[in-house]
Design goal:
The chain is about 40% helix and about 15% strand. It has about 450 residues and is of the alpha/beta class. A hairpin with a 3-residue loop joins β14 and β15. Bound molecules: pyridoxal-5'-phosphate. Pyridoxal-5'-phosphate binds next to α6.
């Protein structure tokens, strides 16, 4: 069905269809249906070009932690724009915001991370991780130790190496991915992959055993790193069973395999601690982050590495004359200034404590949806969660994908004034701005339920 504005030749919607390629969009449906044009935002709300209000239940793409229109962040950008609108970090050049942000990140980082490299997106950060792992193992005289193990259903981005590590088939199909040296082990989703009679703890043990078997099959001298989101986001908000990462890390240690934490969604308070690594018990050798680092107001990402890895990089740069990697915008002073202010605001406003205070209501409202006729499983951690819609609660049978049940539910939620997201099949996720209040949480879940109820007839 054509949207009314699409048939008006000069409307923004029709100009969009004529000119813009949309990410993660059914391009054919988009040509017929056109875009939802968001014009303004304030707090947890965004407004379309007709003035309709929506709760941004996914904080954009799991990222606008301070919501929309935070004056402090806008001011930080303007101040830095006036002072120095651009400079780079090649050939020993530096800027104050980059230095201060690196220091701040190391101050709050988990474990023993000791140096920071800046990129512009989560994908770039994770592509950098792959190169650093290879560079490091070459510096150690281990040229065969290059394979990186990710997980089915993981999401690590869309650039060539990051998309290869992503464990979702649509990111590989017809893109000729994954590249070599990237492997995927089992997804720690107990509800879907736990066996009859297997406890969660036994399931976690099996996940670690399967990882170990994969390492042994490939040869430990060929396996360099394991990468994981503490809580999988785009794969369906999958919270691993208790003890999972402890068991996994024991295997990694045994075979000298680096632990990489992808904190692109989980970082900066999302799971109720500053880092998902704290919540899930991960001690990373490398950590990538982005998104809420600047509350997404400007693009910036970071890779944090241990001193050991950095020393390997120093050795390589002595050998080759330079560490030959970096982006034009690595450490760009304007996003760096906004990110620094974001991290300061997190402290000034006790953002982590705020998340801890409101997360129980978020969880309670989510768990109440377990009784909804369409919901098979509820998964929540801090202020991120999802429901999995199933055709049969007892057998856990999924709906026929051609029904597009989650996508239709999300459309109905949008009509009700809530932007949620269908992820990895029939899962509907919420990941609101961290500034959300209890009243707003209740309002958000009322609209969420309205959306689920609206698709009940489709499920008959
Ligand atoms: N890693 C995780 C866990 C993500 O969720 C994402 C994006 O959603 C990425 C990496 C890629 O980030 P970007 O879209 O900024 O490239």
């Amino acid at each position: 069905m054509n949207s009314p504005t699409l048939s008006q030749g000069n409307s923004l919607a029709s100009r969009d269809v004529k000119s813009l390629i949309h990410s993660y969009t059914n391009l054919s449906a988009h040509e017929k249906e056109g875009p939802l044009i968001i014009e303004t935002g304030k707090g947890i709300y965004v407004y379309d070009d007709n003035g309709k209000e929506y709760i941004e239940g996914l904080a954009g793409l799991w990222c606008t932690s301070f919501g929309f229109g935070e004056q402090e962040l806008i001011d930080a950008a303007i101040r830095q724009m006036h002072k120095l609108p651009y400079y780079h970090s090649f050939a020993s050049k530096s800027t104050e915001p980059g230095i201060l942000l690196a220091e701040k990140l190391l101050e709050i980082a988990p474990g023993n991370l000791s140096k920071v490299f800046f990129a512009n997106s989560g994908s770039e950060a994770n592509d950098t991780v792959v190169k650093l792992v290879w560079y490091y193992n070459n510096s150690r005289g281990l040229p065969k130790k290059k394979k990186i193990i990710s997980r089915q259903k993981a999401y690590h981005g869309v650039t060539v190496a990051a998309a290869s590590m992503t464990g979702l088939p649509p990111l590989h199909n017809d893109f000729d991915l994954p590249i070599q040296n990237i492997l995927h082990t089992s997804c720690p989703h107990y509800y879907r992959f736990g066996k009859d009679g297997e406890s969660e703890e036994d399931f976690a043990t099996r996940m670690a055993t399967e990882l170990e078997e994969l390492i042994l099959r490939e040869g430990p001298d060929t396996v360099a790193a394991f990468i994981a989101e503490p809580v999988m986001g785009a794969g369906g908000v999958i919270v691993p069973p208790k003890g999972y990462f402890q068991k996994i890390q024991a295997v990694l240690k045994k075979y000298d395999v680096l632990m990489v934490a992808d904190e692109v969604i989980c970082g900066f308070g999302r799971t109720g601690n500053m880092w998902g690594s704290e919540t899930l018990g991960i001690q990373p050798d490398i950590l990538s982050c982005a998104k809420a680092l600047s509350s997404a107001y400007l693009p910036i990402a970071a890779v944090l590495v241990s001193e050991d890895i950095f020393r390997g990089m120093v050795k390589q740069s002595e050998k080759h004359g330079a560490f030959a990697h970096g982006y034009t915008y690595s450490g760009h002073p304007v996003p760096a200034a906004v990110a620094l202010r974001t991290l300061e605001l997190m402290e000034e406003r006790n953002m982590v404590e705020h998340v801890q205070a409101i997360a129980p209501l978020f969880e309670k409202r989510f768990q109440a949806l377990a009784d909804h006729p369409l919901v098979g499983e509820v998964r929540v951690c801090g202020l991120v969660g999802a429901v999995e819609l199933v055709a049969d609660k007892a057998t856990r049978q999924s709906f026929d994908p051609s029904l597009g049940l989650a996508a239709n539910a999300v459309k109905a939620m949008q009509d009700a004034g809530l932007i949620a997201r269908a992820v990895a099949g029939d899962n509907v996720a919420l990941c609101p701005p961290l500034i959300i209040t209890e009243d707003q949480i209740n309002d958000m879940f009322d609209k969420f339920e309205q959306g689920l109820n609206a698709v009940l007839p489709l499920a008959q």
